[in-house]
């Protein structure tokens, strides 16, 4: 389904060490310890308000920790660190790009912003590798479905050579076919050595696509599991007992 690997990867590790975040007197994240190694897909589950987005925002440097630290390859990173800018990409729940520009134009624009210049053939390779149908490559994004936008967003992350990809609720609102395509794409991204962390409410998807699963409750990581060691049914039961 997908083309050849587009980059040769180094091995990148993302870590939170005793990471906490307070909003005023409210502790949204408490002493989080979490590691995502190269090739792993870490799925964070938890009810609304459990602290998943806070965790992602801390990794991205959108907010600063109250305590603790974030490491990329064992090196501590500050909010505006170059390591973060170079190696992290973020796929939000709804990928916001330029609606009046085509998929190729958006990809070209955001690649250039990140310092990468590609030929049109190469840009098309990225879009193909992320599963965007050829008939959509030159169409304005305004008419794209959520799943199509997501593919362009992921193509941008790949074109920017991101080693670590963070996603927030990537399968919410996707139809089953788009979810299946997304799952295949994420598995491929991980198989190429990227480290992937996603916040999700989709228990079935977490088991089918994740390598590791964390369940959060009120800012604390209560359970960490290997996806290969639990069925979707058992995970659902554990999740319901936890929350
Ligand atoms: N800027 C903020 N100021 C004050 N409180 C905040 C702020 N951002 C988040 N919170 C609170 O921190 C807690 C964790 O929120 P967070 O968005 O991380 O949860 P979540 O697990 O991502 O939830 P959801 O599944 O709804 O996205 C919530 O109680 C939320 O109300």
Automatic annotation (TrEMBL):
Signal peptide range: none
Record's keyword terms, sorted: ATP-binding, Nucleotide-binding, Transport
Keyword Cell wall biogenesis/degradation: no
Gene3D superfamilies assigned: P-loop containing nucleotide triphosphate hydrolases
SUPFAM superfamilies cross-referenced by the UniProt entry: P-loop containing nucleoside triphosphate hydrolases (SSF52540)
InterPro entries: AAA+_ATPase, ABC_transporter-like_ATP-bd, ABC_transporter-like_CS, ABC_Transporter_VariousFunc, P-loop_NTPase
GO molecular function, one term: ATP hydrolysis activity
Pfam families linked to this entry: ABC_tran
PROSITE patterns associated with the record: ABC_TRANSPORTER_1 (PS00211), ABC_TRANSPORTER_2 (PS50893)
Ranges for domain ABC transporter: 14-243
Protein name per UniProt: ABC-2 type transport system ATP-binding protein
